[in-house]
Each structure stands twice: as structure tokens, then as C-alpha cells.
Design goal:
Length: about 260
Amino acid sequence: MEKFRLKILRGTPGKQYWETFELQLRPGLNIIAALMEIRRSPVNTKGEKVAPVVWEDGCLEEVCGSCSMLVNGRPRQACSALIRDQIALTSNHEITLAPFTKFPLIRDLMVDRTSMFESLKKVQGWIETDGTFDAGPGPKISPKKQEVMYELATCMTCGCCLEACPQVNAHSKFMGAAPISQVRLFNAHPTGAMQRKERLRSMMGEEGINHCGNAQNCQKVCPKEIKLLDSIAAIGRDVTLEAFRELFSFPDRDI
Ligand code: SF4
Ligand code: SF4
């Protein structure tokens, strides 16, 4: 039976090491299923029984983003990464798995993505509501706008775009592309637009849009194929206009 190896960067902060496991290839096997096999029998290629590998997962259908990691060096979800496809990218039947580098490491393949959720709080990534009573139909949104908003709403806060972004690093406070895209989403909503100014202001500081270097890696790795560069361009324009409006005290457009 055909075999393959998973070479995993394991350990805790400052104490990381590579460990390899050999497994049998089965049709349809994905990375998470392979990690589960290792968990059942955590014996490495040296024949040593070791601690089971630690990782995070949730939905197992590329919706929650929690199993994101570097698979053969590329940020993506482990649940949708088929072993057969990943082997095809290698010359030695060895797939490397490593934790994301832009988030604090917890252990093995598990990182703490809290910073992304904190960024969503900073940009007010939500729609304010008065209550749960029926307020009747809201303002209509054109089908074309709905289509764009739907795509933006598929963001699962996975962190792939931050992992690939050179501007997101230990020396920078830049939030990355995902929160910028969420500003575009919630500003486009008729009710969400009531916090438009606050969201744009949150984009003006050292965490905001001016620190995007336009390297464009973010869009290339987004598993939901969100047009992040369109979001960056749209919010960049809105932030500039808002800054001028505030500088010269232009009134808001009424109609
Ligand atoms: S365009 Fe480049 S710098 Fe800007 S968010 Fe995307 S990857 Fe980062
Ligand atoms: S924008 Fe794409 S890559 Fe970035 S967090 Fe959302 S789904 Fe992940």
C-alpha cells in the first residue's frame, strides 16, 4: 500500500522541532483525518511513542477557519487539503505542516487568533440593532450590491490573508486585509452605515489602511476568493475622502 509522511513543526514557543510520521494513503484522506490517525497511534518514524499532535478544528468543511495552518508552506485549511493533492506538490511523498507565524503559538499546530477578533471589535464589524422586534422591511439593497456583500460575508476569519501579508509582522500594528474588507461590508449595509465614520476612523491610525504595502499576497491565498484588493482600494478611497471631510469640516452629503 502507498505510504506518505507528515513532517510536522511541533512544540511550544521557543522550543519548536520537526517530527515525522508515516501513514498509509487511503482514497479521500485529508490532513485532519491523517492527524486524527496519528492521535490514535502517535508513533514517529523513529519508532518512538510521542505526545499526540495538537491542532484546532471545528466545522471540518472550510467554513470556520480554525484548522488553518501552513500546508507545504502555503496558508490554508487542513480540512480541505487532500493528501493525494498535497503529495503531488512534493517530490518525496512528504507533506510539511507548520503553525501560522503571525499569531502567538500555543502548541504544535495551534495558534491564538484572538488578535483578528480584537481587530473586528476595533472596526465595529457588526450591525447595531435596537432590539429583536419586527421593525418591518428595511431599505432595499440592489442585487448587484447584494452579490458583492455576500462574497465579503463569506470571510471566516481564518487568518490566511494575514499570514501571507508582509506588512503584518512583529514590528507593525497593521490589521491586515480581512478587517478592511469587513469595514467595506458593514459600511455597505444601510443600517451598518450609521457607524460608517467610526469604522473609517479606525482605519486611519497605525493599524489601518495606510500601512498596506499593496503586495497583493492576501487575495492570492484567500480560500473564499474574496476580492480583497477591491476592498482595500474602496476603503482607501473612503478613508481619504473622510479625512478631507473632517479636515475641512465638509458637511456629510445628505442625498
Ligand atoms: S495588499 Fe499586500 S500589504 Fe496589503 S493587505 Fe494585502 S498582502 Fe497585505
Ligand atoms: S479575507 Fe479570506 S483569507 Fe482573510 S480571513 Fe477572511 S476568509 Fe480568511
